[in-house]
Amino acid sequence: MTRTLPLDLPEPLQPPPAYAELRAEAPVAAVTTADGRPAWLVTSYDAVAAVLGDPRFGVAAPGTGGEGGATLLQDGEPHSRLRRLVGKAFTPRRVEALRPRVEELAAELAAGVEDTGPPADLVADFAAPLSIGVIAELLGVVPTDRERFRALADAASRADFVAGAAEAGVQQAWAEFGAYVAGLVAAKRGSLGDDLLSALITVRDTDDGRLDDAELTTLALTVLASGYLTATNAIAVGATLLVTEGRFAKVGIAPPDELAATVEEVARMQIGLIGEVFPRWAHADVELAGVRIRAGDLVLARLGAAARDPEHFADPDRFDPGRFQREVDRQLAFGRGPHHCLGAALARLELGVALAALSRQLPDLRLVGSVHDIEWVRAHADTGPVAVHVTW
After folding, report:
1. Residue-wise pLDDT tens digits, 54-100
2. How many CB atoms lie within 10 A of CB 92?
């Protein structure tokens, strides 16, 4: 029987129960998407890792060539060139240099939540302003422009580009945000700063050349599209997960290695909740887990299913940070292969800093109601809670 997506999700902080059944019986299974398209749903760790690491599976349908321009949603050499250039600017050293400012922002926001008094909304009062604040720092947005920057980002980020074309209002918001970023690029060219956008302007490679204004603008928009809602959801859901596990108070006093391991386990357990990797298309006939996939077939690799595969994670539904102190290379939450998340280091830093700051300020944090009371906005690329109401 061919299943139709989406699969039932009775527990908001757990993956669909059907994942376990499919992993055991048909780790590569024929499904029908919500809009009626045939696809392959991939649920085992080994098969998901194979899809993500095999260049025969691309993010663009065969023959389309991807979006073109500077988007990372394309395959082959154009995509590789962009990653090489961005990688020269978006280094671990640059990410780590952001830590003091991220810590300052997180501490200020956590103190503000406490000062305002309970109840509070983790999304609106903490996670979202921290996430957009970090992106503003990354792009070098001047403090006097931060409110406008966030307003434009909020409007533009309502689009779900995986599901299809955005509504007219959201398209207009993206156009306005694009114009703002183009102006930011022009201003940075005239006065470089110590930020990622300035670094991208100056990066040059003998073989790859340099990024033009259109590419810089698109990449800045990509930083927003791939980082704002994802980080907001990761922080809000991560805190919710730790609260329900009875581990929240310990995060703020954990030594660095334990905090890092906790971040890895939070990422593993929530990845299927807050989003999945972009769909893949077979660019050639491929055999995967004994199933023949034809060129042109749509393939949906599910990180949330792979992350609970008992063949790779003992007692996978148990929260166990120690597993990543032993084998961090098993992590799939940030993807793998040619489209591995370029912002993985920043995501880890931001999530760890956010959870630690909130825990130190509000160790007695608890939900108002239960996880079943949380309303979710569900999309493919970014899924998260509308609000997470808490008290202390």
Report:
1. 999 999 898 875 555 567 778 988 889 888 988 888 888 999 999 99
2. 10
Residue 230 in 3-state DSSP?
Answer: helix
What domain range includes position 59?
A: 3-391
CATH classification of the domain holding 172: 1.10.630.10
Residues 6+ apart with CB under 8 A from 63: none
pLDDT in tens, 375-387: 998 876 688 999 9
Best CA proximity match to 283, nearest among 293, 269, 291: 293
State the Cα–Cα distance between residues 136 and 128, nearest whole angstrom.
12
Q: Residue 4: how many CA atoms within 13 Å on its side-chain side? A: 3
Q: What is the pTM of this model?
A: 0.93
Give the separation between CA 378 and CA 273, rounded to whole angstroms.
9
Asked if 178 and 222 touch (Cβ cutoff 8 Å), the reply is no
- Sheet of 366-367, strand order: 120-121, 389-391, 366-367
Tally of domains within the chain: 1
Is 17 in contact with 10 (CB distance < 8 Å)?
yes
Q: How many CB atoms lie within 10 A of CB 113?
A: 21
**What amino acid is encoded at 164 in this protein?**
G
Q: How far is CA 61 from the centre of its chain?
A: 22
Rg (CA), the chain: 21
Whether the CB-CB separation of 94 and 196 falls below 8 Å is answered with yes
Strand ranges inside the chain, DSSP E: 3-4, 28-32, 38-42, 57-58, 120-121, 280-282, 286-288, 291-293, 298-301, 366-367, 376-377, 384-385, 389-391
